[in-house]
Every structure is written in structure tokens, then in C-alpha cells.
Design a protein that fits this description.
The chain folds into three domains: 153 residues, NAD(P)-binding Rossmann-like Domain (Rossmann fold), CATH 3.40.50; 159 residues, 2-Layer Sandwich (Dihydrodipicolinate Reductase, domain 2), CATH 3.30.360.10; 83 residues, ACT domain (Alpha-Beta Plaits). Helix content is 35%, strand content 26%. It is built from 14 helices and 18 strands. Helix 1 packs across helix 12, helix 4 packs parallel to helix 5 and helix 5 runs parallel beside helix 10. It binds L-homoserine. L-homoserine binds next to helix 7.
């Protein structure tokens, strides 16, 4: 007879229902594959009367998390309520009760990961978080196990499906940001309050988790430089396309020498790179590592069943650890420890795409280029879009490598020129 691993689920929302579906439909297959029965013993949610798209025995439902946390027979607590509180307290209580934890809570891990992982280690249990980054893409397992002998050098991710959908719509349909956001809402991709997605916060949570894992440093959300996609105009996608680039919301982390970079911002990605072709709600994570070189992970970054697939993969990994009593297998944070200093965005060099809105009359370009020159910024190319005598026209410039600080200072001066009529849009050009 198979051994049984008892699971308590806290959070019976869309993903929770997905986990129940998978555990029910795949019970026999999973048991055959791993020789362990994954038994969903109790489910907790504040609302236990709402109808879901999956049916469960009412006797295992509760509104009181303590019913799960105090149950000595429960081996694993799955936390799917999201947010910081009370998820943090629930997870800490579970860990202190020597229960392993599976969570999809990227905000919590990115903001409070230090305390959570420390508590897990102190109690000899694991926190597994495959579902927190990239939905159904098994990036955590790949980095932890598949790449175990590698030194990770950099990660470039398109890890927010909503923003990627919006940028793809703007590019394909030639529409503006507002219409693309509206389309994302209609499709159910964007929340009523889309801030976390479009302002880059969700991507920042996810890249903080990946960086902490790859570089084994206490990196958290506040270490990430974040810019979202609100200021991107349809014309930027069109001009970028003409120049041979796609615009993507990139989450980047790199560790080389004493420096660590961690940032989320829109970026021009050359069309010759695979990431430029990751469209719609799909996610992709591009990894550079010393042994494997380049690797690309691509797939559904959200959704009920892809995310449930990730949660169940954690349950299976933990079930193996519990039933073999193998205390040496660390499923959480790992990899070699680095001692890097996070580099300020001002000190990072990049090429830039600039879209200025300037009067179409003689000597305008010379005023702009004089300021760029003063800050040591060299221009690669300039295109004026259209011709409107004495009216503002878009001027698209590509610069050579420039430090963030220099560009910021130069643009502050340029935007004060009488001939410049709107705030200049600056987008980094990523060298992948
Ligand atoms: N809101 C996220 C996205 C999915 O748009 O990709 C959950 O991480």
C-alpha cells in the first residue's frame, strides 16, 4: 500500500480549485508514478459556501486556518490566499509546526522571503514556490536541479502576461495603451486595478525571487529598480519595429564580478532575439549559465491549470522528501552564495531609444544634441517623423551607451527647452 502524505489547502480561489481538480483527476496517475498518495485532508477559505467549478466533501471545509495548522497529521500546507497578511503569519505558523509549505505567493516571498526561508531552515522544513514565477513553466526546478552545476550569469524574463498582452496588442493592432488595457480587461487578463501588472511590480516580485535563488543573496522587492509600461505610446512600438526591435517589459538580473543588477523596465529587444517573439499573455525566461550557455523557457505564465500544475509538482517533490525522510534534499533556496553589491540604475550603462516632441524648425536638433554632448551622450542615429512647420513633431533618436544618471540629467535639461513640447520618452535598448 502507498504511503500517504496529508495536505491542507488554505485559499480556495481559482488556483486552489485548480489544485483540487488536478489532485482529483490525476490521483491514480500520481500515485502510480511516485508511490505516494497525495491526500487533500482539509481546505480553508473565508468563503466556504460559494459554488466553485469543482466539488469537494463539505466535511473537509473550514473557515478556520487553525484547524489545518494544529492538525499534526498534515504534512504540507498549501498557501494560496496571496498578499502579505495573513499569508505570512499562516506560513510562519505552519513552518514552526514543522509542516512543509507550498506557496504561489510571489509578493510575500519577494518582500518577506528572508524571514520565511530562515524560519523554514530553523525548523528543518521546506518552502516550495514553483507557482510563484512563470505559472506552469518549471523554472524554479530547472534552476535548482537542472542547472545545479551551473553558475547563473543572467536572467532576462518576460514574466508578466498582462503587460506582454498589452504591448503585443499595441504593436499588432496599432492601438494606444488605454485601448490595449481595455482589451486585456475584456479578456480577463487585467485586474480592475491593473497597477501590479502594468507598473512592473508583479515582474519585480518574480525577478527578486529568481535573483535570490540564483545568487543566494537576501535580495528583495525593494532592491529592484521598477518602471512600468504606462508611458509607452503606440508610436514607440511602431518606430521600434522600423528600427528592428520589439518593445517588451523585461525583468533582468545579472551577476558578474562585484556587481549585481536587478531591474524591471520596458526595453527594446532586437527582433533577431527569441524574446522579441514572445507575444500575448505568454511568458519566457531566458537564462545564461556557465555550463549550459543560453536556455529559454517559454509557456503559460498564469491561469488555473498551469499554476495548479506547478503547485502539484511541488507537492510531489515534497512527498518524495517526506516519505524517504531525506533531510539533505533542500527544495528551497540554494546555489552558490555570491557577495555582490546591487548596482544603482544610475550607474548602469545602456543604449537608449529617445522619442522627443520638438518644434520643426532650424537649430532645434543642435540645441538637443548640444545638451546630450555636454553629458557625454553620443547619438547613433536620428529620424524626424513627419514635417509640420513650427509645430511639434516626433524626433526619434538612438544613442550609444550612456549611464542612466547622465541620460536622466540630460533629459531634465532637454525637456526644459522652449522647443521641446512634451516629456521625452526614453526606453533602454537591451543587449542580450
Ligand atoms: N498577473 C500575472 C500576469 C499573473 O499578468 O502575468 C500572475 O502572476
Amino acid at each position: 500500500m502507498s504511503k500517504i502524505v496529508n495536505i491542507g489547502l488554505i485559499g480556495f480561489g481559482t488556483i486552489g480549485a485548480g489544485v483540487i481538480k488536478v489532485l482529483t483527476k490525476k490521483a491514480a496517475l500520481l500515485e502510480k508514478k511516485i508511490g505516494v498518495r497525495l491526500l487533500l485532508k482539509k481546505i480553508c477559505d473565508l468563503d466556504i459556501s460559494r459554488r466553485r467549478d469543482v466539488s469537494v466533501d463539505k466535511n473537509i471545509l473550514t473557515k478556520d486556518a487553525s484547524w489545518i495548522l494544529n492538525d499534526e497529521n498534515i504534512n504540507i500546507v498549501v498557501e494560496l490566499i496571496g498578499g502579505i497578511h495573513p499569508a505570512k503569519e499562516i506560513i510562519l505558523r505552519a513552518l514552526r509546526s514543522k509542516k512543509h509549505v507550498v506557496t504561489a505567493n510571489k509578493a510575500l516571498l519577494a518582500e518577506e522571503g528572508e524571514e520565511i526561508f530562515k524560519t523554514a531552515a530553523e525548523n528543518g522544513v521546506d518552502v516550495c514556490f514553483e507557482a510563484s514565477v512563470g505559472g506552469g513553466i518549471p523554472i524554479i526546478k530547472a534552476l535548482r536541479e537542472g542547472f545545479v552545476a551551473n553558475r547563473i550569469e543572467s536572467i532576462y524574463g518576460i514574466i508578466n502576461g498582462t503587460s506582454n498582452y498589452i504591448l503585443t496588442q499595441m504593436s499588432d493592432k496599432g492601438c494606444d495603451f488605454k485601448s490595449a488595457l481595455f482589451a486585456a480587461r475584456q479578456k480577463g487578463y487585467a485586474e480592475k486595478n491593473p497597477t501590479l501588472d502594468i507598473d512592473g511590480i508583479d515582474s519585480a516580485h518574480k525577478i527578486a525571487i529568481l535573483a535570490r535563488m540564483c545568487f543566494n543573496q537576501p535580495i528583495c522587492f525593494k532592491d529592484v529598480y521598477v518602471e512600468g509600461i504606462r508611458d509607452i505610446d503606440g508610436s514607440d512600438l511602431q518606430y521600434a519595429d522600423e528600427l528592428g526591435f520589439a518593445v517588451k517589459l523585461l525583468a533582468v538580473t545579472k551577476c558578474g564580478g562585484p556587481d549585481l543588477q536587478i531591474r524591471v523596465h520596458p526595453a527594446l529587444v532586437p527582433k533577431s532575439h527569441l524574446l522579441a517573439h514572445v507575444d500575448g499573455v505568454l511568458n519566457a525566461i531566458f537564462v545564461n549559465a556557465d555550463l549550459v550557455g543560453e536556455a529559454l523557457f517559454y509557456g503559460q505564465g498564469a491561469g488555473q491549470l498551469p499554476t495548479a500544475s506547478a503547485v502539484v509538482s511541488d507537492l510531489v517533490a515534497l512527498a518524495g522528501k517526506i516519505t524517504t525522510q531525506d533531510h539533505n534534499v533542500c527544495l528551497g533556496i540554494g546555489q552558490d552564495k555570491r557577495h555582490c553589491v546591487i548596482r544603482a540604475i544610475d550607474d548602469i550603462e545602456s543604449r537608449y531609444y529617445l522619442r522627443l516632441s520638438a518644434l520643426d524648425k532650424p537649430a532645434v536638433l543642435s540645441q538637443i544634441s548640444t545638451i546630450l554632448g555636454k553629458y557625454g551622450i553620443s547619438i547613433h542615429s536620428v529620424i524626424q517623423k513627419g514635417r509640420r512647420r513650427a509645430e511639434a513633431v516626433p524626433i526619434v533618436m538612438m544613442t550609444h551607451e550612456a549611464k542612466g544618471k547622465k541620460l536622466r540629467q540630460a533629459l531634465a535639461k532637454i525637456d526644459k527647452l522652449a522647443v521641446v513640447k512634451k516629456k521625452t520618452v526614453a526606453i533602454r535598448v537591451e543587449r542580450l
